[in-house]
Write a structure and sequence with these properties.
single chain, alpha/beta, six-stranded parallel β-sheet, binds thiamine diphosphate, binds magnesium ion
Length: 632
């Protein structure tokens, strides 16, 4: 057998750079290189291996968490067909990636994490940054990756590597199983050599299958759709990842069934598609939420049915409601006692459309409601886009300005704060992938790093990162990385001196905004003094961005116009009114309120909560008559 004598780290890089995926006849290199930061736990091992493999590019970032966000946003933008590896030293560099791992796994996005680890040989322990345990020498901080990884392994001997990397690729390229994959690499093992089989370094193509649905279940689903009176389809991220947008367009036009979009699925249809009711759930439009409330059949396609989509299980109030779940992931397909179509979204939608050929399901009355809801929502969006409030202007107006300034192919990107809800409702998405929200983990700090990943995934699309002051302060470091790599970001920093989102939530639970403003501590001991002065424009400039300040709406519009002419990361900083919020529509979110309290406003909020929570339904144990299938 031909072999190559390589270190574990050299063999790992040699293997990774030769992995490809193929779907629908298109082939992609799966890993485009490695992001990360070196330390003593990887510089001599993996660092050296990357140095001698310049065709597997190393990218230096400022924070290991950011590395994972960059990789995640890149993979999300590439519809999960390619990603990056992320490397770190041992200890804090490694644990910085844990939050990124959770973000990727929850969003079902492939990223490969390669943290350094403590010596396998153990004789020099405890090494710098080692977590010592009295119960076992087989514990390190990297064990913290186990619950947030879809596959986790520790390479304690060089000859374990071939088995581990093949498992890693199997999971990363599995549409149902994908997420963060962690291979912990003890510092000494990285540098140890072994005679690796030469075949390990040959090009390998992983074909991503398009799984069809079980034929009996599909026939039952078609029958249920044919006889439904108020059907509704919910489009989740899976519709985008499976590149099923054309299939969805065809299915919706043919059947007349309206579509509500989750955060992950927004952009599955253009905003002005006749069947697109827009955002659904807690941050949804009135039309989508009324349709959900009345629906007798919900077709959930490529969605995890999170609490934001189901309005904490209050969204579907029709006593007869039944579910059909199209999902590659069996766990999702079985939710709400639904009829599981364990299948690729595109194949399932095409097969359903074929089975329903010539069948328009929606009656005239439902069709006219859909048209009226759409019309009213466009008028409401126009109203919120032109409040002419302030200065400080309203966040809705700022979103309108960015939406108008961006081209149809451009991308808006966001993750946490009040922006995700406002964007979900208001952003007029024109192309698939034009709306990039990390709302599975809603991780403050994802935005700027994620913007860089999205821009790298498709440099022809301009990326507008909309970021609140809180998220900005959590992690703005990758502005410098965007300058280093020459990828231009358009940053729109919305400063409202604290947390509009959690501040609003605090008001609604009776806590009057406690602890949600960026204010100085007063003599009385509370955080309600003067605003903490933070100059966001100076921060952006200091990190290398071009920057403009805007306060009036016209200034924001001019700044956005001027942004387009620059080829380097450019920021506009605008103050927005924290209290002028985009309202909620026909929905509710379960945030339990203290059962007993000394504060009267909290007691009142609790009384309302007790009423509202009664609307929560137990779809998972629906009576047999409401279940569409007994499939196992
Ligand atoms: C890492 C992290 N910590 C805490 C939270 C909880 N959280 C959600 S939104 C938010 C405030 C965000 O502030 P900002 O970015 O200024 O947005 P705004 O609410 O003002 O729109 C907080 C603390 C979170 N989502 N992520
Ligand atoms: Mg804020």
């Amino acid at each position: 057998m031909a072999t190559r004598r390589l270190t574990t780290a050299q063999a790992l890089v040699g293997f990774l750079k030769n992995q490809y995926v193929e779907r629908d006849g298109r082939e992609h290199r799966f890993l485009e290189g490695a992001w990360g930061i070196f330390g003593h736990g990887n510089i001599a091992g993996l660092g050296q291996a990357l140095q001698q493999n310049p065709d597997f590019r190393y990218y230096l970032c400022r924070n290991e968490q950011a590395a994972v966000h960059i990789a995640t946003a890149f993979a999300k933008s590439r519809m999960r067909l390619s990603t990056f590896a992320c490397v770190s030293s041992i200890g804090p560099g490694a644990t910085n990636m844990v939050t990124g791992a959770a973000t990727a796994t929850i969003n079902r996005i492939p990223v490969l994490l390669l943290p350094g680890d403590i010596f396998a040989r153990r004789n020099v322990a405890p090494v710098l940054q080692q977590l010592e345990s009295e119960q076992s020498q087989d514990i390190s901080v990297n064990d913290a990756f186990r619950p947030v990884s879809r596959y986790w392994d520790r390479i304690n001997r060089p000859d374990q590597l071939p088995c581990a990397v093949v498992e890693a690729m199997r999971v990363l390229t599995s549409p149902a199983q994908t997420g963060a994959v962690t291979l912990a690499l003890p510092q000494d093992v990285q540098s140890e050599a072994w005679d690796y089989p030469a075949e390990m370094f040959e090009k390998r193509v992983w074909r991503i299958p398009r799984q069809p649905a079980d034929s009996i279940s599909l026939a039952r689903a078609a029958e249920a759709i044919r006889t439904a009176k108020r059907p509704l389809l919910i489009a989740g991220g899976g519709v985008l990842y499976s590149e099923a947008t054309a299939a969805l367009d065809h299915f919706a036009r043919q059947t007349g069934i309206p579509v509500g979009e989750t955060q992950g699925g927004k952009g599955s249809l253009p905003f002005d598609h006749p069947q697109n009711l827009g955002a659904i759930g807690v941050t949804g439009t009135p039309g989508a939420n009324i349709a959900a409330r009345e629906a007798d059949l919900v077709i959930a396609a490529g969605t995890r049915l999170s609490d934001f989509t189901t309005a904490s299980k209050t969204a579907f109030q029709n006593p007869e409601v039944r579910f059909i779940n199209i999902n590659v992931n069996e766990m999702d397909a079985f939710k709400h006692a639904g009829l599981p179509l364990v299948a690729d979204a595109r194949v399932a939608l095409e097969e359903l459309a074929a089975a329903l050929a010539g069948c328009r399901v929606t009656n005239d009355e439902y069709c006219s409601s859909i048209g009226a809801w759409k019309q009213r929502w466009e008028a409401e969006t126009d109203r919120l886009f032109s409040l002419h409030h302030g200065p400080p202007i309203s966040q809705g107006e700022a979103i309108g300005a960015v939406n108008r300034a961006s081209r149809p192919e451009d991308v808006v990107l966001c993750a946490a704060g009040s922006l995700p809800g406002d964007l979900h409702k208001l952003w007029r998405t024109r192309r698939p992938g034009g709306y990039h929200l990390e709302y599975g983990y809603s991780c403050m700090g994802y935005e700027i790093a994620g913007g860089l990943g999205a821009k790298m995934a498709d440099p022809s699309r301009d990326v507008y990162v909309m970021v609140g002051d809180g998220s900005f302060l959590m992690m703005a470091s990758e502005i410098a990385t965007s300058i280093q790599e020459g990828y231009k970001l358009n940053l729109v920093v919305l400063d409202n001196h604290g947390f509009s989102s959690i501040g609003g939530l605090s008001q609604s639970i009776g806590s009057k905004g406690f602890g949600t403003d960026y204010r100085q501590r007063t003599g009385g001991g509370s955080l309600d003094g003067e605003l903490v002065p933070v100059d966001f424009a100076a921060l952006c400039a200091a990190l290398g961005a071009r920057v403009v300040r805007a306060s009036k709406r016209e200034e924001l519009e001019q700044a956005l116009e001027a942004m387009r002419g620059h080829d380097r990361t450019t920021a506009v900083v605008v103050e927005v009114d924290k209290e002028t919020r985009v309202p909620g529509y026909e929905s509710w979110w379960d945030v339990p309120i203290s059962e007993v309290s000394e504060i009267e406003s909290i007691r009142q909020a609790r009384a309302q909560y007790e009423q509202a929570v009664k609307k929560e339904r137990r779809h998972e144990v629906a009576p047999a008559a409401r279940q569409l299938t007994e499939a196992r």
